[in-house]
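Quick start: read one record
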Amino acid sequence: MTAITVIGCGPAAHRLVQRLHHHGHRGPVTVLGAEPEPAYNRALLVSALDGTLRARDLALAPFPPGVRVRTGTR
């Protein structure tokens, strides 16, 4: 099995990990993110700031099982 490390924990990285899982990758996946908080949909941030959406509406779906996420890591 091939181990994959994804640098960055934003929406694009999140989508990449989901697609890897969807297409059958079952090897270890580690996601590294500099921010201390879990990934969120940054494209919708303005809508949360202006009150159109709640902050929790920015949350992304959970990563597939077995994905190791390391926040606060550069």
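The mean pLDDT is 92.
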